[in-house]
């Protein structure tokens, strides 16, 4: 603002600012938006992926291919908005905690505790990335975001603003039992926000052993005589349970309101004991489950005999329970299973890695029964999330895939680049096996990995030349989207030279699917001839300067239109799924970079 404004001009400026403030929201999280260079550059340069071939790891072609993307995570997320829209089951992230320790950058500058804008910068930074991830989650997908006390409240408000229809639960994890000393408190915990749909059961039950099972009386034994605990508040929960030889042999029907047993244990002539939910004072209570639902948990019920009173009662032993919102235990210890574990693998120090088993537990809450789930971590750091997914697959024979995104900066001052010197070597050793610091061999967990870097194509205006360039550089993106990495025929990369595409088409495959990329429409007949005798479904991308529909050109290889009752049936039954490029990519980028 001009320091020499007159009194009248100053009053006008104040009035203008008042009007601007009225336009701002008055409730919720408000911060000063700070422009971010990596976001702004996407207005003229579009991100793509380029594979680093010599970092490929293949141990078993039948196993899924995991991805490690080196680059700014904003650009990686932009690419994934095209390749993995609605496909990701879990997004687990451990973003910068914004402690002021110069451990993250904004516009190429470290943010330290003296930066007056550090909270606004952090919120802008997080907001840009959280907005991009929204379109990646599957319908039942879950976001898990860890944080500490420095930005916990701000993150919670931001999540509520960006995910208004989701349920958000904050779990406390005791990750540092000895604590980090503050001026007034010793901090021994961090937080994990779970963002999920609340209308369905998407968070798994916690599995307990016999030693730590949840054991409770099956009769509602809450203290006091509140009507909520008594028979009159739930008559369908008052019925006899039949016991013989200390085993449950059946369940009776709901008792008539006029029927009142003399006591909780009624012995019949046939030796069967009728058990009723009546306490030691003769108060008629109720079972925890209604008559219509009790048989579904019969296997969890057992008999407890009281020698003193010579009566029996019903005990429920639950080995599957809802997760509590406070997690504690040795496996969550970040020093033992984070710092020390990583040092044992790499022989290198890396600050504040997560406990392997804390990350695995978080992931397992969502994908316990999803053996082909996709897990994304775009703050991958030391690669703990990838390690956790491989560990989980080993435990239950799953084929889950991970996508890790991380930069390659030495932002911890230890001389090691995060992607090349920490994350990638860790994943490589965990997959292939390694020797620990004691010289002991640790068996590999198996798996495959492709290593990519983000790159850019200048696209400052929608010219034909720029569309050709984008198409020529999009091959790896399309292969990642389809999961097809093995090229059929002589490997030849599509390139743009003097505004022209040299390669006519390429074909890639995996065990179940094929991908065709046609760079010249004149090559369609030759391409069709090449795939005519190949059995299996194809995703075919055809270069077009517009948004052309090539269904007529492939009608003979697809289901006949006369046999299809609808367009949906035609598409679902089609052997060839068609997309114009680069328009299919540009459509996504126009949405996110608008």
Polypeptide structure, described:
InterPro entries: DNA_methylase_N4/N6, DNA_methylase_N6_adenine_CS, RM_Methyltransferase, SAM-dependent_MTases_sf. Residues 88-405 form the DNA methylase N-4/N-6 domain. Belongs to the N(4)/N(6)-methyltransferase family. Keywords: Methyltransferase, Transferase. It comes from candidate division WWE3 bacterium CG06_land_8_20_14_3_00_42_16. The protein folds into three domains: 29-204 and 325-451, Vaccinia Virus protein VP39 (Rossmann fold, 3-Layer(aba) Sandwich); 214-322, no CATH class; 462-592, no CATH class. The model is unreliable at 491-500 and 560-572 (pLDDT under 50). The strands form nine sheets. Strands 1, 2, 3, 4, 7, 8, 11, 21, 22, 23 and 26 form an eleven-stranded mixed sheet that branches. It has a five-stranded mixed sheet with strand order 27-30-31-32-33. It starts with 6 loop residues before the first helix and ends with a helix. A hairpin with a 2-residue loop joins strand 5 (101-106) and strand 6 (109-112). The longest helix has 17 residues, at 7-23. Helices cover 27% and strands 27% of the residues. It is α/β, with parallel strands linked by helices and 594 residues long. It is built from 15 helices and 33 strands. It is globular and about 95 Å long.
Strands, helices and their partners?
Layout: H1 7-23, H2 37-40, E1 45-51, E2 57-58, E3 65-70, H3 73-83, E4 88-93, E5 101-106, E6 109-112, H4 118-133, E7 137-147, H5 152-162, E8 167-173, E9 180-181, E10 186-187, E11 190-196, E12 205-207, E13 214-217, E14 241-244, E15 247-251, E16 265-267, E17 273-275, H6 291-294, E18 301-306, E19 311-318, E20 320-322, E21 326-327, H7 334-346, H8 356-367, E22 374-377, H9 384-396, E23 401-406, H10 418-432, E24 433-435, E25 441-443, E26 448-458, H11 464-472, H12 475-482, E27 486-487, E28 496-497, E29 500-501, E30 505-509, E31 513-518, H13 524-531, E32 537-543, H14 567-573, E33 576-581, H15 583-592
Parallel strand pairs: 3-23, 3-26, 4-7, 4-22, 8-21, 22-23, 31-32, 32-33
Antiparallel strand pairs: 1-26, 2-26, 5-6, 7-11, 8-11, 9-10, 12-20, 13-19, 14-15, 14-17, 16-17, 18-19, 24-25, 27-30, 28-29, 30-31
Helix pairs in contact: 3-4, 3-12, 4-5, 8-9, 9-10
């Amino acid at each position: 603002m001009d320091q020499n404004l007159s009194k009248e001009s100053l009053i006008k400026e104040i009035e203008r600012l008042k009007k601007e403030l009225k336009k701002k929201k008055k409730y919720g999280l408000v911060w000063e938006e700070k422009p971010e260079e990596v976001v702004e550059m996407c207005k003229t340069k579009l991100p793509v992926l380029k594979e680093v071939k010599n970092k490929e790891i293949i141990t078993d072609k039948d196993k899924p291919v995991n991805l490690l993307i080196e680059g700014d995570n904003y650009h990686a997320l932009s690419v994934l908005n095209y390749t993995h829209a609605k496909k990701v089951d879990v997004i687990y992230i451990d973003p910068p905690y914004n402690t002021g320790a110069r451990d993250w950058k904004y516009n190429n500058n470290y943010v330290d505790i003296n930066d007056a804008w550090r909270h606004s910068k952090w919120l802008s930074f997080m907001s840009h990335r959280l907005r991009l991830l929204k379109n990646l989650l599957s319908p039942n997908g879950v976001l898990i975001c860890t944080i500490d006390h420095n930005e916990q409240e701000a993150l919670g408000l931001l999540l509520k603003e960006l995910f208004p229809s989701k349920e958000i639960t904050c779990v406390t994890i005791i990750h540092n039992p000895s604590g980090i000393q503050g001026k007034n408190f010793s901090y021994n915990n961090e937080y994990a926000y779970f963002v999920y749909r609340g209308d369905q059961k998407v968070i798994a039950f916690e599995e307990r052993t016999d030693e730590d099972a949840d054991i409770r009386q099956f009769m509602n034994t809450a203290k006091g005589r509140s009507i909520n605990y008594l028979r009159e508040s739930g008559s369908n929960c008052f019925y006899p349970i039949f016991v013989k030889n200390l085993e449950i042999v059946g369940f009776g029907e709901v008792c008539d309101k006029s029927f009142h047993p003399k006591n909780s244990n009624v012995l019949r002539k046939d030796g069967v004991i009728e058990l009723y939910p009546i306490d030691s004072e003769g108060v008629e209570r109720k079972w925890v489950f209604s008559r219509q639902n009790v048989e579904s948990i019969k296997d969890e019920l057992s008999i407890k005999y009281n020698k003193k009173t010579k009566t029996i009662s019903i005990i429920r032993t639950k080995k599957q329970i809802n997760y509590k919102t406070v997690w504690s235990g040795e496996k969550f210890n970040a020093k033992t299973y984070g710092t020390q574990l990583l040092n044992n693998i790499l022989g290198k120090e890396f600050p504040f890695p997560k406990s392997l088993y804390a990350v695995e537990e978080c992931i397992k809450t969502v994908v316990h029964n999803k053996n082909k789930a996709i897990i994304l971590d775009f703050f991958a750091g030391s690669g703990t999330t990838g390690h956790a997914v491989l560990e989980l697959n080993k435990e239950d024979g799953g084929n889950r895939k991970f996508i890790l995104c991380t930069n390659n900066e030495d932002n911890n001052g230890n001389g090691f680049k995060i992607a090349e010197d920490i994350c990638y070597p860790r994943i490589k050793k965990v997959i292939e096996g390694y020797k620990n610091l004691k010289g002991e061999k640790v068996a590999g967990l198996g798996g495959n990995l492709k290593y990519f870097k983000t790159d850019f194509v200048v696209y400052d205006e929608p010219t034909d030349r720029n569309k050709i360039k984008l198409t020529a550089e999009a091959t790896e993106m399309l292969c990642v989207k389809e999961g097809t990495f093995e090229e059929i025929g002589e490997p030849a990369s599509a390139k743009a030279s003097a505004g022209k595409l040299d390669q006519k088409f390429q074909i890639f495959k995996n065990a179940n699917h094929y991908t065709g990329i046609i760079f010249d429409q004149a090559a369609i007949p030759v391409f069709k001839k090449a795939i005519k005798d190949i059995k299996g479904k194809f995703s075919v991308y055809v270069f077009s300067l517009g948004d052309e529909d090539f269904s007529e050109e492939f009608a003979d290889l697809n289901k006949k239109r006369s046999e299809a009752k609808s367009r949906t049936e035609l598409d679902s039954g089609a052997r060839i799924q068609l997309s114009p490029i680069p328009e299919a990519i540009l459509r996504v980028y126009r949405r996110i970079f608008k």
